[in-house]
From TrEMBL:
Record's subcellular location: Apical cell membrane
Main location: membrane
Pfam family of the protein (one): EGF
SMART domains assigned: EGF, EGF_CA
InterPro entries, sorted: EGF, EGF-like_Ca-bd_dom, EGF-type_Asp/Asn_hydroxyl_site, EGF_Ca-bd_CS
Domain of life: Eukaryota
Key words, A-Z: Calcium, Cell membrane, Disulfide bond, EGF-like domain, Glycoprotein, Membrane, Repeat, Signal, Transmembrane, Transmembrane helix
Disulfide partners: C64-C81, C83-C92, C121-C130, C159-C168, C197-C206, C235-C244, C312-C321
Protein name: EGF-like domain-containing protein
Provenance organism: Ursus americanus
Any one Gene Ontology cellular component term annotated for this protein: protein-containing complex
Annotated membrane topology: Single-pass type I membrane protein
GO biological process, one term: Notch signaling pathway
Residue stretches making up the EGF-like domain: 15-53, 55-93, 95-131, 133-169, 171-207, 209-245, 247-284, 286-322
Length: 407
């Protein structure tokens, strides 16, 4: 059967099926024709009997270049180019470059590949001829804020404080060197360390002993002595207490002797020796009996080993010259004469020196001032060596003083 009819809907169309047998060969294309089919042959086929069943010689068109030899491949209807030295490729279209014709830079080594040479570049360089200097820092190999410095065939990382290692990825332990002194605790931190000092030390490394006297804890002029972890106050006289803050009772030790009265003061004391018979800072010295001035009426006091003696002025008597002798009370002068005692100071003035024989037994007597300026006396014993002028006497008279004693 050559023709078939197919019913599609209400119409019957005639379909030519002559190309169904695919009589065209060697990759030729069959086109249906109303009367006959026709083969359009490929480049490699020859139109023979209109079925393209004959193949052309693949090497007929000289596909190989550069004087290469074209060889047909049996049964495959293709060819193979045998390239002369220095060329490569399917049709020998590529000229081969050898290592001797190029120069690898920066120490690169040339390696001959089948088609062209290849430069094996050292670290830090790239490119066909190793002409490009690679930036090793482009990949950010340095960590933790480090600065990357590109170098020939490498890089260097400059670490910030607290890090170390080629890439600054290792934290530095600043406490490894044991910088803290005096058993302080070292606290490691990024890029630094902190010393936790014990109570008695200070400083960055706890290297300084704390001066407890720095705050001046001692009072009232006391001297502060610094010690390890402590201080001591040396108090001045008159103060006690840890900080010398208390006024001490200097009389507590009873420094006054022989019944002297101790008077406490600030930082000091004094001894009142009144009535004790002693003198001195602590009433330690026996006071001479005459210091109390026991003799009266300007009498002279003379100390002895355990007593004293009062030397009376004329006209006074008694152990302390306290008794006044009035011998003129009897008015012994006659004929209107005036009786004058020999002893009263108010009459004769004070004698600068008193003879040792001028004592109570001799402290008596009087003189009479007569109208005729003659001196009448009872028994004259001896003439006195003293001559005394009296304002009560006549101004023209010089009367020799005679010492009289009663019989």
């Amino acid at each position: 059967l050559k023709n078939y009819y197919f019913s599609v809907g209400s119409f019957c169309n005639k379909n030519d099926t002559r190309c169904l047998s695919n009589s065209c060969q060697n990759n030729s294309i069959c086109n249906d024709h109303p009367k006959d089919n026709k083969c359009h042959c490929s480049d490699a086929a020859i139109d023979l009997d209109k079925d393209c069943d004959n193949v052309k010689d693949p090497c007929f068109s000289n596909p190989c270049q550069g004087n290469a030899t074209c060889v047909n491949t049996p049964g495959e209807r293709s060819f193979l180019c045998k390239c002369p030295p220095g060329f490569s490729g399917t049709t020998c279209e590529t000229a081969i470059v050898f290592c001797g014709t190029i120069a690898c830079q920066h120490g690169g080594v040339c390696h001959q590949d089948p088609l062209h040479p290849v430069c094996i570049c050292p670290d830090g360089y790239a490119g066909r001829f190793c002409e490009k200097d690679l930036d090793e820092c482009a990949s950010s190999p340095c960590h933790n804020g480090a600065v990357c410095q590109d170098e020939i065939s490498g890089y260097s990382c400059f670490c910030v404080p607290g890090y170390q290692g080629r890439h600054c990825d290792l934290e530095v332990d600043e406490c490894v060197s044991d910088p803290c002194k005096n058993e302080a605790t070292c606290l490691n931190e990024i890029g630094r360390y902190t010393c936790i000092c014990p109570r008695d030390y200070s400083g960055v490394n706890c290297e300084m002993e704390v001066d407890e006297c720095w705050s001046q804890p001692c009072r009232n002029g006391a001297t502060c002595r610094d010690a390890l972890g402590a201080y001591f106050c040396d108090c001045p006289l008159g103060f006690v207490g840890e900080h010398c803050e208390l006024n001490s009772d200097e009389c507590a030790s009873q420094p006054c002797l022989h019944g002297g009265l101790c008077v406490d003061g600030q930082r000091s004391y004094s001894c009142n020796c009144t009535g004790s018979g002693f003198t001195g800072t602590h009433c330690e010295t026996l006071m001479p009996l005459c210091w109390s001035k026991p003799c009266h009426n300007n009498a002279t006091c003379e100390d002895s080993a355990d007593n004293y003696t009062c030397h009376c002025w004329p006209g006074y008597t008694g152990a302390q010259c306290e008794t006044h002798i009035n011998i003129c009370s009897r008015n012994s002068c006659k004929s209107g004469g005036t009786c004058v005692e020999l002893s009263p100071e108010k009459q004769y003035g004070r004698l600068a020196q008193l003879p040792s024989s001028f004592s109570h037994p001799e402290a008596s007597g009087y003189v009479c001032i007569c109208l005729s300026l003659e001196i009448k006396r009872k028994e004259v014993l001896r003439q006195s060596p003293y001559l005394v002028m009296s304002s009560n006497w006549p101004t023209t008279a010089q009367i020799p003083l005679r010492k009289l004693i009663t019989v």
